[in-house]
Design goal:
By secondary structure, the protein is mainly α. It has 18 helices and 4 strands. It has a two-stranded antiparallel ribbon with strand order 1-2. A two-stranded antiparallel ribbon has the order 3-4.
């Protein structure tokens, strides 16, 4: 018959919805075709111990094309883990920078959801625990990162109400919870035929969550199926008063972490699902609710994982290339210094003569010389502190004092950003030379961000830009 190839076409080539089949066949009369498609899928279907709000059983289809996509994704994950292990072993500095960059990217996605107006410098400082303020952005982001940290410490524990409560208390900053689950219903569809729910009735939450815990603990299937089911199911139930999407993301990461991804699972930017292509993901989630077929979201989730792994692998490769480049230049610089030392040793008399000439020239200058002052708080081994670009400092350079200086700078110069003020008050010694690499390392940000930040500080008169052996350096300018 003419429709014999239809089930394979719309299952193996593309796992299509009924509407997509109708659109591609250009006819609304597809009931016969759709029946054949469902019959074909049924032979590969496997029921899940999860129930919809109207008590129907969820399932997923392991048709050959779907199974291949699951296997291919799992292989990508294995390669990803291998690459990360190699970097962790051979490039320890890059591991830290890679981790920080991942958390900055995670924060950027949270900021998009809540429309927080903060820049990469701010996020880098937050991730590195170098900033604290009273803004909503700080508390939401800091609590979320703390929630990820708490979850990463729960990898060896079962996922149950206790672990869920520990994470939820952290991201809400409420450690005296009287009730874990939501006790108030919002809008719920009351349609008799194929009802669509935007959340579970609060009276059903505890039972549905118990089913979820049993599924996570005892059902045997690919961890990608478990992770996809976790995100879908928690989004369906919405068991909490707030932060349901964030909790779904963190628990999904915990499921992945418990299945060999370990701490690396928490670096995956799954938070993109909170913002990117939101209409598309809502459409997929709705299709699962209407059909009880998790396969639609499973395939979407696999695409997300593949994209994120490619993104992180590219980030790893860039960091590794940068580390190799830095190692090369560091070795070259070391060799050059050794040659200079050789020249110095062979020309001691010339050096002494040069110093005498310089001293005679200095004594003959008819200008006022600046007398260096001894520092009361940073003098070590009888070395004389050279002074700072900021004219007045507290008697002790404690971290609290530096933060006050930082706040003063931000209040007196609105063009400065948090990261620039943070770096400057800690790197403003007259006569010293600072580099873009120092800024990048100190704030844990991208090289381009460090370069533009230092250039702006020079433009605003905080540093003078110089070239030393083809290397750009920044020297503090004395400020009034």
């Amino acid at each position: 018959m003419a429709y014999d190839g239809i089930p394979i076409r719309f299952t193996e080539n593309k796992y299509a919805t009924k509407l997509e089949v109708s659109n591609e066949l250009k006819t609304p009369m597809i009931d016969v075709f759709w029946t054949k498609i469902l019959e074909y899928r049924k032979q590969y279907s496997r029921a899940l111990p999860l129930f919809s709000i109207d008590k129907k059983v969820y399932f997923y289809c392991l048709a050959p094309a779907v199974a291949n996509k699951i296997n291919d994704c799992e292989m990508r994950v294995i390669n990803f883990l291998s690459k990360y292990s190699g970097i962790k072993t051979n490039y320890t500095n890059d591991t830290s920078l890679f981790t920080n960059n991942c958390y900055v990217n995670i924060c950027e996605n949270i900021c998009k959801k809540y429309n927080f107006d903060v820049d990469e410098n701010y996020l880098s400082m937050l991730v590195n625990h170098k900033i604290h303020d009273n803004s909503k952005a700080y508390f939401v982001l800091n609590n979320y990162l703390s929630g990820l940290q708490v979850a990463s410490n729960l990898i060896d524990k079962a996922i149950n109400e206790d672990t869920i409560a520990e994470i939820y208390s952290t991201i809400t900053n409420n450690f005296e919870l009287t009730n874990l689950y939501r006790e108030k219903d919002n809008y719920i569809s009351h349609a008799v035929i194929n009802p669509i729910f935007n959340e579970a009735p609060c009276g059903m939450i505890e039972k549905l969550m118990d089913d979820f815990f049993k599924f996570i603990d005892g059902f045997e299937c690919s961890y990608l199926v478990k992770a996809a089911a976790t995100y879908y199911y928690l989004n369906l139930i919405k068991p909490f008063d707030e932060y349901n999407q964030e909790m779904a993301i963190i628990i999904t990461k915990l499921v992945l972490a418990k299945n060999n991804l370990n701490d690396l699972a928490f670096l995956l930017p799954l938070e993109e699902m909170l913002t990117s292509d939101n209409q598309n993901i809502e459409k997929v989630l709705l299709e699962v609710q209407k059909s009880e077929d998790l396969t639609y979201f499973l395939l979407y989730f696999i695409e997300i994982i593949n994209e994120e792994i490619a993104f992180l692998l590219n980030k790893m490769n860039n960091l590794q290339a940068l580390e190799l480049k830095n190692d090369y230049y560091a070795e070259s610089y070391k060799e050059a210094n050794l040659k200079i030392e050789d020249v110095k040793e062979n020309n001691i008399e010339q050096k002494q003569l040069k110093n005498e000439i310089i001293n005679q020239k200095d004594n003959s200058l008819d200008v006022e010389k600046e007398i260096p002052q001894k520092s009361h708080n940073v003098e070590t081994n009888n070395e004389v502190y050279q002074g700072l670009a900021i004219p007045v400092l507290p008697p002790s350079l404690s971290e609290k004092d530096l933060q006050r200086l930082e706040e003063n700078l931000l209040e007196s110069d609105p063009q400065l950003k948090h990261g620039q003020a943070y770096f400057y008050v800690r790197h403003c010694t007259i006569g010293k030379r600072y580099t873009i690499g120092q800024y990048k390392k100190e704030l844990g940000c991208a090289y381009e961000t460090a370069r533009t930040s230092m250039d702006l500080l020079a433009k605003l008169g905080y540093y003078r830009q110089e070239m030393v052996k083809n290397k750009k350096v920044y020297t503090p300018i004395k400020r009034k």
